[in-house]
């Protein structure tokens, strides 16, 4: 995997992550407030699931 491909993937992730706050700042703020009120274990499980899904996708497509 080349550095160029990693930078392209990172750029795509940043674009996707930035769409929410760019287009819907008020909804994004409310969403973040709601998430901050969630149970810590739930957030850890969600984060673990996202990391696992990312690793599986990297393994499949590399």
TrEMBL record:
The keyword Membrane applies. This is DUF2065 domain-containing protein. The chain crosses the membrane at residues 6-24, 45-61. The lineage of its organism: Bacteria, Pseudomonadati, Pseudomonadota, Gammaproteobacteria, Alteromonadales. Keywords: Membrane, Transmembrane, Transmembrane helix. Pfam families: DUF2065 (PF09838).
């Amino acid at each position: 995997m080349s550095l160029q491909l990693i930078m392209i993937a990172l750029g795509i992730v940043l674009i996707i992550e930035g769409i929410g706050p760019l287009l819907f700042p008020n909804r994004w703020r409310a969403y973040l407030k709601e998430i901050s009120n969630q149970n810590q274990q739930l957030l850890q499980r969600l984060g673990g699931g996202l990391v696992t899904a990312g690793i599986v996708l990297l393994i499949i497509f590399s």
